[in-house]
Amino acid sequence: MIDFYSLDKEKKLNYANLLGILGSLSKLFSENEIPFLHYRIMENLFCSCFNAKNLSRSDTAYDAQINDIGIGLKTFICEKNNSIEKIAEFNKLSSNLKNIKDLKELVLELAKYRNQRIDLANSLYGINKAFYHIIARRKDRFIFFQSDYEKINLDKIKILKNSKSSLSFTDGINEYYFNYSKSVLQRKFYIDENYNELKIEILDDPFDILLSLKDDILNKNKVKSKVAGVDYVILPLYSFQKEEKYIPQKSGLNQWNASGRLRDISEIYVKIPAEIHKLCPNFFPDRDSPFTLTTPNNEKLNVKLCQQNSKALMSNPNKALANWLLRTTLQLKEGELATYNKLQILGFDSVIINKIDNLIYSIDIMPLDSYEEFIDLIKCKQK
């Protein structure tokens, strides 16, 4: 298994020192004797200290990436030697799962969903190895340990227990729990015998410390945050029909299947809704003006806006976009239709386009319902 402890010693020291500082400020948030550490802070700190790519916002299987290593990051209170923690949500698939009455069939379906999301992240970001880096929190200390990040072994699944609230099973390596009401898959994590620990001294009054640092903090240059509609937009990979999301069989991601002229098997485009042009009029270059679009695995695509009203984002050659979106990301075979159910299984239904520089952009996937949230954000800001 890949070893967290083999990472750069100086970076690990900075990481530990910063965690110690954050833990000492716990009373900003809680009166608990157990030091506080929000999972988002841990993710951002880990990525900053180890120059890792932050994958947490894309909601794929991993939270961070270093070269070809995928890393799951977790922090939780753990007074014993183990804890059961969430590893995946299947809210959008809950209706499908509820219709499965056979327990073995249900467990296999859950395992397949989980494994497909790991395969997606591996393919999307070029990941070949993975591990969990975990901080368990106890009174006055952080416990550091790591655990395997393996797919569920479909051939070794054994059901352990079933109740009204949950179903537990094992694959011979790890124990898993499925919460029926929340459609959440959990895993039991055991603290490794080779753990390290960091003693945390929680300050009685962290507000005094912050006040003493006021001038230093406020006089620092402010980091410019990304502005929605200016620095990035989010595009849906679907259409609506009677308020239901679907992928048309003869346009968009399935443009290759359209009737009429003979089409290449990889002819696709990403739809740009008229609402995007209306709310973010200066984000994209003019129609037919080429620009560069970089994928998560650093492939550079030559793209431009096409069709009437600049409603389509296409690449040249067209198969370049299809190779990334249909083959690498959705893992579809040639001639296989893209469906919204496939997007739900993988946990995303839109893409984010970031503006890096003049005619330089990047693309990545975004979690389910991100497009609607983006539109609401833009409209709220423009009121």
What would you note in describing this structure?
- The radius of gyration is 23 Å and the shape is globular.
- The mean pLDDT is 93.
- The relative contact order is 0.12.
- The chain has helices spanning 9-24, 39-49, 94-98, 103-125, 206-212, 214-219, 274-279, 318-329, 340-346, 370-382, and strands at 53-54, 64-66, 69-77, 82-89, 129-138, 141-148, 158-162, 166-170, 175-179, 184-190, 196-199, 232-236, 239-241, 244-246, 270-271, 291-294, 300-306, 312-315, 348-357, 360-367.
- It folds into two domains: 4-219, no CATH class; 232-382, no CATH class.
- The chain is built from ten helices and 20 strands.
Walk me through the topology.
Blueprint: H1 9-24, H2 39-49, E1 53-54, E2 64-66, E3 69-77, E4 82-89, H3 94-98, H4 103-125, E5 129-138, E6 141-148, E7 158-162, E8 166-170, E9 175-179, E10 184-190, E11 196-199, H5 206-212, H6 214-219, E12 232-236, E13 239-241, E14 244-246, E15 270-271, H7 274-279, E16 291-294, E17 300-306, E18 312-315, H8 318-329, H9 340-346, E19 348-357, E20 360-367, H10 370-382
Parallel strand pairs: 3-5, 16-20
Antiparallel strand pairs: 1-2, 2-3, 4-10, 5-6, 6-11, 7-8, 8-9, 9-10, 12-19, 13-14, 15-18, 16-17, 17-18, 19-20
Helix pairs in contact: 1-2
